[in-house]
Amino acid sequence: MAEHQCVSFMLIKNGKILLERRSMSKEHDPGLVTIPGGHMEVGENQQDTLLREMEEELAVVPTKYRYLCTHLHKTTEWQKIHYYVIDAWQGTIEAHEAEEVFWHDLCEHHADIESDRMALDSFLAQNVLA
Question: Would the pTM count as exceeding 0.70?
Fold first, then answer.
């Protein structure tokens, strides 16, 4: 089975992370609580996908971001998810594709998929050691 390249974005603010509840009509992970993100399109690199998906899904543009890690996720397909930490952005967050978006305490693992929880662990480990 082929791996589909994806980019997820961890918006961090005041010790909280922005999570989404996916729509029940989504093909992948319907109804689950996840870190927002999306599939890379043909010809895109990770940064292109990050910028496009943040605008499409949340109506914001990242102004300060960094690569964090990459994990595999098995849903109806294999996804290779590249996680980015978004420390600053422009615009007002809106839920364009998810059922809802909400802020959640970083220290509580509320994400429903294992790769998201592993990315949160990576973020917490790097920021405790920093």
Answer: yes
